[in-house]
Amino acid sequence: MKHVYTGKTKDVYALEDGNYLLKFKDDVTGEDGKFDPGANTVGLTIDGAGKAGLRLTKFFFEILREKNIPTHYIDANIEEATMTVKPATVFGNGVEVICRYRAVGSFLRRYGMYATEGQPLDGFVEVTLKDDIRQDPPISEDALHMLGILSREEYKVLKDLTKEIGNIVKEELAKKGIDLYDIKFEFGRVGGDAHVALIDEISGGNMRAYKDGEYIEPLELERLMIVE
Ligand SMILES: Nc1ncnc2c1ncn2[C@@H]1O[C@H](COP(=O)(O)OP(=O)(O)O)[C@@H](O)[C@H]1O
Ligand SMILES: [Mg+2]
């Protein structure tokens, strides 16, 4: 097993059979000890956060597999807090795709002149560059194409998959009376044909979820969603 990358919340290893192993850590993103799914720094460490994130990730990726939606998922080992995945090549140095159902977070900070807090957004898709130094700038389809990060065909697939997967997560949460405000995904090129597939994770650390108007912390979200 070869160490490939140390991320903020996961470590990445290459397995001998060519697949990757993601090790989920107890570190969560945020600032000054406060959780923030949009943050680019590790804000705090919570016991059990890694396993909880993996449990929710496994739950959603297995639903996607049943629906034949392309992802990197192979299997998960909750005890070890590891997930086996197909290796992906990311677009440029990595992009993030956000699907928004309500105006909060960076959307509200940027467009507060026009948007009001919590305003419904109907699955608005937004792409940002993974660039910590430049605070993950949003980027348009034209710029992605012009800069050679993503082709127009790939962009369309990515946008359609984002809406489809976002809606699946939203519906699963709704079954428990939970309201999804926004969610962040990562995509990459997977397999010999380099098809666009969902990679990384789908956990409480990547979304904002509310119940009865109250924000739900990632660990609590996992407890509400996964009934053992
Ligand atoms: N299937 C995959 N193939 C290659 N890289 C992946 C795959 N799934 C996730 N990754 C990458 O592994 C890293 C996971 O670690 P994480 O702590 O989330 O990193 P980051 O600090 O960049 O958010 C991310 O950079 C993500 O893009
Ligand atoms: Mg990450």
From TrEMBL:
Its EC number is 6.3.2.6. Residues 4-215 form the SAICAR synthetase/ADE2 N-terminal domain. InterPro entries: SAICAR_synt/ADE2_N, SAICAR_synthetase. It catalyses: 5-amino-1-(5-phospho-D-ribosyl)imidazole-4-carboxylate + L-aspartate + ATP = (2S)-2-[5-amino-1-(5-phospho-beta-D-ribosyl)imidazole-4-carboxamido]succinate + ADP + phosphate + 2 H(+). The lineage of its organism: Bacteria, Bacillati, Bacillota, Clostridia, Peptostreptococcales. Pathway: Purine metabolism; IMP biosynthesis via de novo pathway; 5-amino-1-(5-phospho-D-ribosyl)imidazole-4-carboxamide from 5-amino-1-(5-phospho-D-ribosyl)imidazole-4-carboxylate: step 1/2. Keywords: ATP-binding, Ligase, Nucleotide-binding, Purine biosynthesis. Belongs to the SAICAR synthetase family. The keyword Ligase applies. This is Phosphoribosylaminoimidazole-succinocarboxamide synthase. The keyword Ligase applies.
